[in-house]
Predict the structure.
Amino acid sequence: MTTGNEHIKVEKKKEIGIITLNRPEARNALNRKMIQELGDALAEFENDSQTRSIIITGNKDFCAGADIKEMIAIKPEEIEAFCRWGHKVFDQLECIGKPVIAAISGFALGGGCELALACDIRIAGESAKFGQPEVNLGLIPGFGGTQRLGRLVGVGKAKEMIFTGDIINAKEAASIGLVNRVVKDEELMTKAEEMAITIAQKGPIAVKMVKALINENQEIKEGLEKEIAFFAQCFTTQDRLEGINAFLEKRRPKFKSM
Ligand code: CO8
C-alpha cells in the first residue's frame, strides 16, 4: 500500500486494511495533511479487491479532534470550504463499501469522536475517553457529530455530551451504545482484527449491500449540510476566537455571546 504518508500508517494484513493515525505529539489531532492521507488510504482500500474489512486506530490516543493550532490560522471565509472537504472524507469513510472498525484507546475527542462515529463499529480499550468538547472552544462539532452522535446514542445523551463537553470513559460509552464493546487495552488490536477477519470471511457483496441499506435509512444528508453552514457561521464569532486562544494559552475562556 501507499508509503510516504506523514501522519498515518497504512498496512495490509491479508484481507484486512489497517490505518493507524500517527501524530502522537499532537495526540493525533487531525490536520489537513492527515485528513488528505486518510482519504487517499480509504480510496486505495476501496479499490483493492483483496481488502474486505478495514480497521482505523491510533497509538496511545485515537484522536484529540481537529488540529486547533491549524484552525486558528484559517480565515472565516475559508472555513466552509474546509469543513465541507472534511465532511467529504468522513462521508467517504461512512460510505466505503467495506465495513470499518474503529479500534479506540485514549482520547477520542471532537473530530476524533466524530471519526469514530463515521466508522461502522467501535471497539474501545479500557483507557478510551470520548467527548465532543467543541463548545469549550466556542464551536460546534463540525465533522458530522451533530448528526451521527444522536443517531447512535439517542438525542438526549447526544445533547448532554455536546452541551456539556464532558468526557466519558469507555464503560459509560458502552452503556449508552457509543461503543460496541470494551476490551483490555492490550487486547484491542487482537479483538478488532478478530472481528475484521470474521467479517472478511462473509460474502463481500452481501456485506456491502447491508451497509448501504442500513446507511440509507439514516437520512443524514440534509443535517450534515446544515452542520457545515452552522459551523462556518460559528467560526465568525468572537467567542470562537476567545475559545481557541484560551485553549492555546492554557486558560479558561471568557465567552461574551458575540
Ligand atoms: N489540536 C492541536 N493540538 C492538540 C490538540 C488538538 N485538538 N489536542 C492536543 N493537542 C496538543 C497540545 O496542544 C499539546 O501540544 P504542546 O505539547 O505543544 O502544548 C499536546 O497535544 C499534548 O496535549 P496536552 O498537553 O494538552 O495533553 P493533556 O494530557 O494535558 O490533555 C487533551 C489531552 C485532553 C486531549 C487536551 O489536549 C485537549 O483538550 N485537547 C483538545 C481537545 C479538543 O478540544 N478537541 C476538539 C477540537 S475542535 C474539533 O475537533 C472540531 C472538529 C470539526 C472541525 C470542522 C472544520 C474545521
